[in-house]
Amino acid sequence: MLTQKLLSRLKNASAVTALTGAGISAESGVPTFRGKDGLWDNKKVEELATPQALRNNPELFWKFYRWRKKLINEVKPNLGHYSLVDFERIYDDFFLVTQNVDNLHREAGNKNIVELHGNIFNTKCADCDKSHTEPISESTQIPICNFCGGPLRPDVVLFGENLQEKNLRAAQEAAAGCEIFFSIATSSLVEPAASLPFLAKANGSYVVEINSEETPLSQHADECLRGATGKLLPALVIIIEKLQS
Ligand code: OAD
Known about the structure:
binds 2'-O-acetyl adenosine-5-diphosphoribose
């Protein structure tokens, strides 16, 4: 059951921001980061997706990323992703901030989006930072930059790295300027993304969490919707369309 307050905001809002995390892609088959999914080949993802792993064990680093890219290449957006395309159609000022690097929001059709942690299909040089567009070969070798000879890497934020300033600023502006802020299928543990709902709330936004489980945000959110994004988000779209018709 949604509260009258949320129904009224859903009906009248024009500025809506959504922050998504790994859970929205779980129903497409992309493993999440924490819990039982947070291991690859018995190693912690947090230890593989690091600048240190790229430097000290580039073969293993690329083995992990080739596996992850292949897996992501084979999956498709689900109803949760497509519902956020409906949000973008419905609300004049809808902005999507995602922590996911899997490109599934873009594939579904969202345009007004910032990928806070990058995109796994983009590649750059770890030394000279130049972007590379050519596909990464399937071979086991470490791909090399043809400008400077340095090792290539996926253009994603690795554990311990800073976000791109312009992406963070765009996300913060969207959080501070919205009437409703949805925190969707994220553990709300990783900064700076975890602070965005608090920034939204401090600026008068109504904060709604959508997650199958409780998170550190739950007790601070104005409303929590418990369940799977693939069910809750399409149901919300139907409600919003009814409210606005
Ligand atoms: P996590 O894997 O930490 O959390 C996924 C969240 O989604 C959990 O809170 C689950 O309860 C929830 N969840 C899972 N399936 C769901 C479903 N079908 N419907 C609703 N909720 C569901 O992923 P994130 O919080 O997104 O960063 O992780 C944040 C960042 O941590 C990642 O972007 C990554 C990692 O460090 C970098 O790699 C820089």
